[in-house]
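Reading a protein record of the kind used here takes only a little practice. Think of the row as the fold of the chain written in a discrete alphabet. With that in mind, consider the following protein and its fold in token form:
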Amino acid sequence: FMDRAVRMAERDKNYPCIVMWSMGNESGYGPNFAAISAWLHDFDPTRPVHYEGAQGVDGNPDPKTVDVISRFYTRVKQEYLNPGIAEGEDKERAENARWERLLEIAERTNDDRPVMTSEYAHSMGNALGNFKEYWDEIYSNPRMLGGFIWDWVDQGIYKTLPDGRTMVAYGGDFGDKPNLKAFCFNGLLMSDRETTPKYWEVKKVYAPVELKVENGELRVTNRNHHIDLSLYRCLWTLSVDGKEKERGEITLPEIAPGESGTIGLPAFRSLKPLSDYQLKVSILLKSDALWAKAGHEVAWEQFCLQKGDLASADLINKGALQVKEDDNSLLISGRSFSVQWEKKVNGSMTSLIYKDKEMLAHPDDFPVQPVTQVFRAPTDNDKSFGNWLAKDWKLHGMDHPQINLESFRHEERADGAVIVRIQTSNLYKEGKVVTTSVYTVFSDGTIDLKTTFLPQGVLPEIPRLGIAFCLAPAYDTFTWYGRGPQDNYPDRKTSAMMGLWKGSVAEQYVHYPRPQDSGNKEEVHYLTLTDKQNKGIRVDAVENAFSASALHYTVQDIYEETHDCDLKPRAEVILSMDAAVLGLGNSSCGPGVLKKYAIEKKEHTLHLRISSKQ
């Protein structure tokens, strides 16, 4: 041990980028480490000494042989999901309780050493939930140093398959036993150095300049330790309903490291009622640096100046509708549209036609439209390192529910609109989710769809509550007003701006080497799926924004594959819209989902307005 430490220090003593010496990793603790620490302090008194393993010896939680108190995979001081533990009981599941709360260590008064987490935010697959909460706490206490994300890049290995395709292989793909399967995929980047949505979340939270609006002024905090803000420019853009309307530049004062200052914001013309106004403030490099070109954005913040109205809940029908019904089906038609349901099996919508174009597709493995979605293809966080979520979902049959049609009826409103009420149940091992869908059909083809989801009985933590349609292949351009452009989730959306975004459906899925849920977009106000002529279907939020995704995969497509190379996109478009989505958490190695990002087992409502996009 001592020889290794001496060689390390002699080899690296003249590298200015080395700010402290580390005595090792996960190697226990004993007199050998105490001796190494003494030698390092004598050899180089300018650098502190670190070792996460220096803890819990002879009743001393943090021996004085190290200059920094360090922990793995700490928790924030908020409540985590603890299913199976009665509400109010002063205990937690072992998967959470094993991890200490970092801020509590920093708040102890019997020590004044700096505190850090030498591994945290385990970035395996679709991960990095509640990352901002970590840094809210880190910035709140001067003893907190920060932490080291595990880790930078996936460590997959390219493997050529017999058919000539290349795959990113992981444990077991070479016949190796024992192995840790996909535990080599923990990076912010893919193995080929492609970025993931996790990367952008880290960049946003780690930004060296913090921006806040206080009392009508912009408060700027310089998070840098060694430079003032004279190296940066400050630009602003004003967007109305997702479209840029104005832009300008603000003179940035030379705020010293660690200090704050306030500057005035531009005066904007009177805001149009009903429209959504978003102000983005960006901090950019003035000149080229060794690591980036002039104009590179190092920080940004978005401020909502006025929240736009969602679609009105009150619509009046202004034309006639034709209703045809027999024992098996219900057909409603109006000007240039028709919609049809079957009534006997599962209450499925069998056709939706706008301008002679069928919107829906009906593959054999998607028999119900819209289908109630309660399950998601488990993320690595849902199923790794002792997490109970994916195991509980499978145990309760969440992955293969039995769908029962409970009731189907329709009635005509006084203004001629037709109301269709359908109730179904997704049945699980010991519980169910009852879905009540109320369609109000108008003569111009607009369909108001109000869906309520009521969990009943014994259910595990719920991954989502929503519906999904299977749309025809032609409608493969996805446009949405909501958070983007990268996918985002309730606990990982700090880096996703509100805006009007557009891309192909194929671009929405994130190809993690082990298939799992991805592609979600939060706070969606409206979306369209259109063909090459920019025609198709539009869905607006009524009352509350919703979560959405548009993919070339069903949940089962993703769930049933273990390698991305075997995940075959289908031609159809799976449009998912959710009233609630479970957060991601960090529990592939570390604490799980914060309770505030869980789905309460109560009634949830998804209110949408479906119409033709022409």
In short: Residues 2-201 form a domain with the TIM Barrel fold (CATH 3.20.20.80). The chain has a mean pLDDT of 94. The chain has nine helices and 33 strands.
